[in-house]
Amino acid sequence: MQQIDSLAALREKIARKTLVVGVYGLGYVGLPLALRFAEEGIRVIGFDIDADKVRQLEAGESYIERILPVQLQQARAQGFVATTDFARTAEADALIICVPTPLNRYREPDLSFVQDTLDALLPWFRSGQLLSLESTTWPGTTEEVLRPMLAGRGFVPGQNCALVFSPEREDPGNPDYGTRDIPKVIGGLTPVCLALGQSVYALAIRQMVPVSSPKVAEMAKLLENIHRAVNIGLVNEMKIVADRMGIDIHEVIRAAATKPFGFVPYYPGPGLGGHCIPIDPFYLTWKAREYGINTRFIELAGEINHYMPRWVVEKVGEALNNRGQALKGSRILVLGLAYKRNIDDTRESPAVEIISLLLEKGACVDYSDPHVPVFPHKRDYHFDLQSVALTESSLPVYDCLVLATDHDRFDYALIAREARLIVDTRGRLGNQPNVVRA
Fold first, then answer.
1. Which of 161, 276, 364, 400 is catalytic?
2. How far is CA 80 from the centre of its chain?
3. Count of Cβ atoms closer than 10 Å to residue 46 Cβ
4. Helix (H) or strand (E) holding 43
5. Which of 7, 197, 238, 311 would you call most buried, defined as having the most Cβ atoms within 10 angstroms of its Cβ?
6. What kind of fold does domain 2-211 have according to CATH?
7. How far, in Å, CA of 372 to CA of 343, rounded?
């Protein structure tokens, strides 16, 4: 009777909008989600192990460009707090995990952030709570990892707690689709779990997309990102072929895109970036090996995309060589550090890899990015660099510019006029004597 009552109490709190939501991981996914709940008058506790992030949030300061201080102030007025104290897990009714799921050095799934978060919150987990995982992972994680950890403490999803998987679908910089507007895929371990999970998320997100199990939801997230990775890999390979043939791949894409059916345009670049697309395919290829399946198609696309930063550096060396100059000792300015235009997110950015490769070749490298004033601390890279302002006097100093991320805030007329040489990986600049496509 106590088990039924605990879930009934959760259901009543959801109906009355008196529940407390705990969000674990206050990065590019967790913080927007926390603020979305707060906008609906839901009290939110944000958990993060980074004390500096918590301090900034408690002071009303934002460390994500697209989140304004006024949004934090409004959320705090609704009861939003940030903390490093996982004991406050006991205060929350719905616990949503939004932590990274990277790859290790062997390009295998690294679930340590999820497991560490669970280890930190489980001592304070109680009957009547809902646990949701949003971090991208392999199909089966919710059932194979999370459920046993709950069971070890006497919790049974659907009886005295609820367990769901609902993958994040954030698209930083997208002006048309924010957290509220992106349909929410969700799978529950039991029908009771699914119903409770939908009820929680429906408080903040317009459309629910229920599926039959967490495995389906986990696989759906991987399919979404693998679809993009494979198609970007295809167009990147086409770019290399077109370059050797002296064909402008961007003109080819524009022509093909006029077909009103059967073709979706994808655009080449210097490689894949962001936390999802460069990483997620390997979560499936790793899990598929357990079933004796070799995902050759997906892995080939990954190889092509992983090669692209090296392709760009080769083009830089070739372009300089054609002007009688060696790459070693040259001054290079990389334009754009974020992984895509008009945002400040540098996670897995190919621009960072390009900088590293250029430095290995002996070049002197700077970067310019209006969204990233100082090179951020990363697990694999750290360069003592600050963004260079683009001016009539600063641009001619460099032997070559590499357009890695085509931010709208760049003055392309100024760049084209003042730069000695430009290697354009985005097709943003026209066919000018000082521009080389890469």
1. 276
2. 24
3. 26
4. strand 43-47
5. 197
6. Rossmann fold (3.40.50)
7. 9
- The H or E element spanning position 187 is strand 184-188
d(CA 10, CA 233): 46
pLDDT tens, residue by residue, 44-69: 999 999 999 999 999 999 999 999 99
Q: How many residues does the chain have?
A: 438
Give the mean model confidence (pLDDT) for residues 184-188. Answer: 98
pLDDT above 50: residue 3: no
What tokens were used for 161? 């707690």
CA pair distance 341, 336, nearest whole angstrom: 8
C-alpha distances in angstroms, 231 versus 20, 264, 308, 420? 41, 9, 14, 34
pLDDT value at residue 438:
92
> Which tokens go with 165?
């998987």
Residue whose entry in the numeric block shows the structure tokens 């406050």: 88
Q: What is the CA radius of gyration of the chain?
A: 24
Query: Domain map of the chain by residue range?
Result: 2-211, 245-437
400 is catalytic: no
Q: What's the rounded Cα separation, in Å, for the pair 435 and 276?
A: 31
CATH superfamily of 245-437: NAD(P)-binding Rossmann-like Domain (3.40.50.720)
Domains 2-211 and 245-437 share a fold: yes
Sign of the four-CA dihedral 71, 94, 100, 308: negative
CA distance 122 to 326: 57
Residue type present at position 1: M
